[in-house]
Amino acid sequence: xxxxxxxxxxxxxxxxxxxxxxxxxxxxxxxxxxxxxxxxxxxxxxxxxxxxxxxxxxxxxxxxxxxxxxxxxxxxxxxxxxxxxxxxxxxxxxxxxxxxxxxxxxxxxxxxxxxxxxxxxxxxxxxxxxx
Length: 131
Fold this sequence. Notes:
- The chain is mostly helical and 131 residues long.
- The chain contains eight helices and no strands.
- The chain has helices at 9-15, 24-31, 36-43, 49-52, 56-62, 66-86, 92-117, 121-127.
- Helix 2 packs antiparallel against helix 3 (36-43) and helix 6 (66-86) runs antiparallel to helix 7 (92-117).
- It is globular.
- It starts with 8 loop residues before the first helix and ends with a helix.
């Protein structure tokens, strides 16, 4: 099992933006979880857990949340695209375009940096956000 760096709960509180989908009580349990197993138990209570449940094993092996971030970004991108199609006369299609261009630039940077470091094609594909 990978070693996890602990972050002080006070510092975590400053990084969290209030008003999201995660209830305040669950968020406090996540912040104050003394070990990773309790963290995983608490995260299972969140509705987004269904999206990331397949990557939990990867998190335990690598100690990294990068795969979870990518999966949530892909899910967000899919939901945002659906909303932009539902409301074509709003600002949503423009925002969708801008976000997709930002992701395209990030993907290009990831590809360039990964090729410089000699990562395999499979590893590069896992790092990219593609909907």
